[in-house]
Design goal:
This protein is of the alpha+beta class and 181 residues long. The chain has one domain: Pyruvoyl-Dependent Histidine Decarboxylase, Chain B, CATH 3.50.20. Helices cover 26% and strands 40% of the residues. It has helices at residues 18-29, 52-56, 109-128, 138-147, and strands at 5-15, 35-38, 42-43, 48-49, 64-74, 80-90, 97-105, 151-162, 169-179. A five-stranded mixed β-sheet has the order 2-5-9-1-4. Strands 3-7-6-8 form a four-stranded antiparallel β-sheet. Helix 3 (109-128) packs across helix 4 (138-147).
């Protein structure tokens, strides 16, 4: 079974119970009726990246659904949390790409998202033999990856939130959701 399509979702939920806050984050992301199975970080060869709206309508309640999930939660008032998924797509679509997940405290969405994107791109770059200097800033390396002609796209999706001011559980998720049909 090799997924044919992937789409990206994100969500946030707040509730007095930790599990219920996770459920609300899944609802916000539109994947609460799925039986989610977490998988690791490979974007299959020739896997089509589709918009959330096109992907979500293909899901059926109770369906076993594979995803790469980033999740973070807190009950600390005002604590900043983030959950991000990074993506790196090779130019040769017959080759696999990479997805990464990053969960952080104290990082705004753009910083956590860039970090996840950097992780995915770096993993792909190392498998493709692209030379790079890890000390360089992400923006510089991103340009090197793209100009190498071996990586055509990097991106991310990220959800961040501040912990509820009254100490309720706050959960953030980001996910790459696979479709096998």
């Amino acid at each position: 079974m090799i997924p044919k399509k992937v789409f990206f979702v994100k969500g946030v939920g707040t509730h007095k119970d930790k599990l219920a806050s996770f459920e609300l984050a899944l609802r916000d992301a539109g994947i609460e009726t799925q039986n989610l199975v977490y998988v690791s970080s490979i974007l299959p060869p020739n896997c089509e990246i589709i918009p959330r709206t096109k992907g979500a309508i293909q899901l059926k309640p109770g369906q076993i659904t594979y995803c790469v999930m980033a999740r973070n939660e807190t009950s600390e008032p005002n604590r900043l949390i983030s959950a991000a998924i990074g993506l790196a797509v090779p130019k040769d679509r017959n080759t696999y790409g990479y997805l990464s997940e990053h969960h952080s405290f104290g990082e705004k969405a753009d910083i956590a998202g860039d970090y996840a994107e950097d992780l995915a791109a770096t993993m792909l770059a190392t498998t493709l033999g692209i030379e790079f200097e890890p000390e360089k800033a992400w923006d510089e390396r991103k340009q090197e990856y793209i100009t190498s002609g071996k990586i055509i796209k990097t991106t991310h999706t990220c959800q961040s939130a501040e912990g509820n001011k009254h100490g309720l559980w706050t959960t953030v998720i980001s996910a790459a959701v696979f479709l096998t049909e």
